[in-house]
Fold:
Amino acid sequence: MTAAVTVVDREHPHARRNTLVLASAAAFSGAVPPIAISLGGLTGAYLLGSDKSLATLPVSAYNIGVAAGAIPAALLMRWLGRRRGFILGAAFGIAAGLIAGWTVVVGSFAGFVLGLATAGFAGAFVQQYRFAAADAGNPAFRAKAISWVLAGGVAAAVIGPQTVIFTRDLFTPIPFAGSFFAISVLAAIGMAIVAMLGGEARLPPPRSSGAGGRRLSTIVRQPRFVVALICAIGAYSAMSLLMTAAPLAMVGCGLGTDNAALGIQWHVLAMFLPSFITGSLIARFGKEAIIAVGLALLTACALVALAGIQLMNFWAALILLGVGWNFAFIGATTMLTETYKMEERGKVQGFNDFLVFGSVAIASLSSGHLFATVGWARINWVALPIVGTCAVALAVAVVARRRTA
Structure:
């Protein structure tokens, strides 16, 4: 018993250090999604001309890139180790910014879509930050590790939108190109930070995590895995559906690009600021309770958005959307970590992110089509049954667990 306790105690300083490094990297690498989301639809509309129906396709391409990169990112880090894998992911981010910025300058919509897809592929490596932090610590530290990494998004919530405001007119009269070139700078800073991660002994690479253990089909049939996956997909998809359309709706209502960018800034702050306490709340009240609160806040977001189209309606809805996503997604991710063994983590984490971000991509693409055809209000009505499905799945799991207990 004493030896086991000593191992855990020794593990904490390394886990904490690397978690803080990953959180710092997330502040810069995590600033890319706010840029892609707040400007992706607006830039798409600029490049398309009169037909705006595919305006949010670049945002969808970003999410498709995350989904497409989920499994390769997990496999590459199994072969290369976490540190080298994260550096490689940052290199994709640098290339993505150069592609996206240049294609805006030359007016290529297809090239711009490719650039954001590449940014999404790089984002798949960033999504692995939370798993890297969780895997490096003991089970008691996992929820906090995930929360700390996501807390890096607080800085990203400021860095991303402020980057948009200060760089969008660098190539006047061509809008937004400077902001996409800035993605390369942010990715380069993120690369420098992840290079500071501890040695492989301190941050074990999942070299054997893709093989061994149970079959993936066995793992994914666990009721707890299914509930965690449904809640993660539902919360993230509902968030993407509303967040992608919100800047277009705000500009369409005459509220201006700056208000749209600031709305996304408040939203991203709301997504990540609660992370400082979410892990502690999960430890005190349980994952199911925190997920339930998150789903309730997502419901409140849609209702506030349906109540009016004033600036405060949009900003309040986006703040509720961010906090609701934080509680639901961190709770679901923590629940997921209970469903696999260490030797199974690579394949399970990659499969989970592939399904989550594949669904997010569908949601963001649907958001543009729905906004162009039925409008902002209907999009909020669509989000409600998505959240309701998560609530039903969670309730069934809670009842089943109480009966078993």
